[in-house]
User: Which sequence fits this backbone?
């Protein structure tokens, strides 16, 4: 083997360099290139086509929430597998009643959608109120919302 390498140094060096270049190209192709894909969620959104939330469902949720005379506004935003609702209520609404608004959202969604999406609810008022904002979160594996510390300032 040593005799062969000594007689063909130039060819062995070129062959070794070609082998290293091909090896590096394969490594880059397998591990680096996928990092530059446009999908910031990777494969976390697999199956989302089967769980599309229709605009009529969102409109129904918003209309039902707004039918409560103490709800002044409802904003909805979908971010991947998280459904975000921002509900603006009157200053006089009790926090216990405001927390029940999350159940209205759950009633309007299909069971398989509830088990696919996480749902966040932020309940706030237009005026300053010591009891608001209230943040609620429902993980896809949970049945009900869990609410964080009620109201208060962040200072």
Assistant:
């Amino acid at each position: 083997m040593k005799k062969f390498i000594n007689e063909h140094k130039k060819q062995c060096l070129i062959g070794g360099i070609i082998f290293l270049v091909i090896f590096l190209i394969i490594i880059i192709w397998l591990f680096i290139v996928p990092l530059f894909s446009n999908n910031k969620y990777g494969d976390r959104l697999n199956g989302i086509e089967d769980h599309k939330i229709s605009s009529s469902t969102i409109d129904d949720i918003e209309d039902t929430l707004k039918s409560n005379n103490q709800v002044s506004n409802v904003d909805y935003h979908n971010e991947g597998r998280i459904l975000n609702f921002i509900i603006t209520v009157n200053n006089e609404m009790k926090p216990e009643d405001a927390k029940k608004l999350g159940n209205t959202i759950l009633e309007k969604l299909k069971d398989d959608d509830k088990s696919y999406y996480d749902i966040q609810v932020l309940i706030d008022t237009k005026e300053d109120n010591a009891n608001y904002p209230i943040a609620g979160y429902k993980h896809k594996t949970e049945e009900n919302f869990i609410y964080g510390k009620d109201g208060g300032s962040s200072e």
